[in-house]
# Entry
Amino acid sequence: MTRVGIVGVGHGVFGRRSDATVQELAFEAFRSALEDAGIDRDAVDASVVGSVPEYHKQRSLAGVIQEYLGLVPKPTWLTEVACASGSAAMRTAWMSIKAGVHDIVAVIGCQKMTELSTPEILALMGRVGEVQWESGFGTTFPGYYAMFAKRHMHEFGTTREQLLDVAVKNHHYGAMNPFALFRKEITKEKATASEDVATPFQVYDCCANADGAACIVLAGEGRAREISEVPIWLDGMACATASMSVLRRPSLVGLPSAERAAAEAYAMAGVGPADVKVADVHDCFTIAEIMAYEDLGFCKKGEGGPFVADRQTYVGGKVAVNVDGGLKAKGHPIGATGTSMTYEIVKQLRGEAGERQVPDADVGLTHNVGGIGQYCFVQVLKRD
Amino acid sequence: MFKWFGKVNYTPYTKVNDFARYLKDGHLMGSRCKSCGATSFPPRADCDSCMSGDFEFIEVSGKGKLHTFTKIVAAPTGFEDVAPYIVGVVDLQEGGKALAWFGDSIAEAEIEIGMDVQIVPRIIEELEDIKVYYSLEQPGTTWSKV
Ligand SMILES: [Zn+2]
# Structure
């Protein structure tokens, strides 16, 4: 089966995009990905849209995006696995090229979250967990991760300070990212002065809803080498699941889906965690990034807190993590997050990340989680 | 009558409907597969071990140890009037886990991971409709219909 290469990437500004519809956001990212690839849209064989339908008034989004991008009558389809929808779109595009069905596929992760009213958002917020046994007690997305944090602190001595080290780092890099929602450094003092959300989390432990889109153009090896001087190879592309209900999980100090997807992605790509120079991980909450370090093998289980406190995940540390600002500072337009992660790693591996560039980055990784870990996608990307 | 279960209920119908009826009468029920004997809490109609659909309810003690907890301040629709509230996950003595609110028998300052707790059936009194749930209490706290 052919190797799959990334030949073009595009990214729009994340934030409250009252200036655009979701298909207009998709168009921005698609146009810049085509410009980046240096190809005409006629060269694209199919598109895959990663997005979560319940945030949009437009039903069956893939069709309206296909039309607005000017890709009709070519095939399109939508993938949905909560916050990992963009990476699921990447995986199905990768599969279609591997299978020889398509040669060049555009993947568009996109989401418009700010059109919903506050009551609509609060109603959705009440159904993030398993609704039969858990949601009846008013569980929330931050509530689940807060319980992971409490348990992690109990078992490993992870501290409140270490959680905030994640937020401080990601805002530090977000300040340098022109696509980020929040472009300001924060201090721990400012973070601890923010409102409680779900103990131990305060506002600055949590990522924010946003609108946005990011597009990735994939091609089979032959076409990838023709189109691009530096194709970035998608050599590891794994997906795993964990039970949706926390009541069916043996442990709450990590995501079993992430551990499994990472092991598979490393094996596919023939690399190990020590080879990864730069990674974008799913920091929907501060504890999520600490658990990701451990689940991905960047450090041992339980050592994620000291790992970030020792600045091992800054540029210049063992592995640079979320040096685009992460979900925390970029904002989290859920369908777009996976493709935004891939965008950043491609730019890093090409050496085009500017003041945030990780030196000698040749192997990179993305870790995109859906919901509270019921889905996890891990990609390993390489430069020749 | 699973619609009785939870302050807000999203699943009015299930093959384990009777769980809510038992709870209303003060009984906390898990399930046991009649084919292979595998047990589950929360109960499930379709066996996770052998895939049989033949099950029976079995009463569980509700006793266990606190696995983790959080105080939820930012509440979703339907929970604004009770926020903030403390939610805990318990490892049950008989196997399985449960998620529930802390009840009145445990003060917030006493809550710590690893403590002994018991899941106790509750009825929400103020509402016209029957609403049943369970709460995390000091072991030995008895259910009483109010
Ligand atoms: Zn069975």
Remarks:
- The mean pLDDT of chain A is 97.
